[in-house]
Amino acid sequence: MNLLRSALAFALASASCFPAFAESAKQRGTTVFVANGCQHCHTIRDQGGERGPDLSGVGRTLNKTQIRTQITHGGRQMPSFGDILQASEVDDLVAYLHSCRDKKPK
């Protein structure tokens, strides 16, 4: 129940990353993010873990190709998810993360 509550809180907090267009891929990307435990290491909009970098503004700093490469190949301390996620899940996750464009706090 606690995991469900966390996932719901995360989804609601990150909902403002979604522009009005193409919501379905970005919504599916949120589901992929939560279902694969990404929020245990990464934070988006003050929700999630602190082990990995805050991804609230990742769409401002990385392009879609760079985001896809990080997901599929891993690197730094992040494991590779290329053999775990289906291609459509990676596409959705990339769409979601690229939509997260918060500015870094000064």
Give a quick precis of the structure:
The longest helix has 13 residues, at 23-35.
Question: How would you portray this structure in words?
Answer:
- By secondary structure, the protein is mostly helical.
- It has a single domain (2-15, 23-99), classed as Cytochrome c-like domain (Cytochrome Bc1 Complex, Chain D, domain 2, Orthogonal Bundle).
- The chain is 49% helix and 4% strand.
- It contains five helices and two strands.
- Strands 1-2 form a two-stranded antiparallel ribbon.
- Strand 1 and strand 2 form a beta hairpin.
- Helix 2 packs across helix 5 (87-99) and helix 4 (64-73) crosses helix 5.
- The radius of gyration is 13 Å and the shape is globular.
- GO terms for molecular function: electron transfer activity; heme binding; metal ion binding.
- Keywords: Electron transport, Heme, Iron, Metal-binding, Signal, Transport.
- InterPro entries: Cyt_c-like_dom, Cyt_c-like_dom_sf, Cytochrome_c550/c551-like.
From the structure above, extract its key features.
106 residues; mainly alpha; Cytochrome Bc1 Complex, Chain D, domain 2; two-stranded antiparallel ribbon; electron transport; transport; heme binding
Helix-strand blueprint:
Blueprint: H1 2-13, H2 23-35, E1 43-44, E2 47-48, H3 58-61, H4 64-73, H5 87-99
Antiparallel strand pairs: 1-2
Helix pairs in contact: 2-5, 4-5
GO molecular function: electron transfer activity; heme binding; metal ion binding
Domain Cytochrome c: 24-101
InterPro entries: Cyt_c-like_dom (IPR009056), Cyt_c-like_dom_sf (IPR036909), Cytochrome_c550/c551-like (IPR051811)
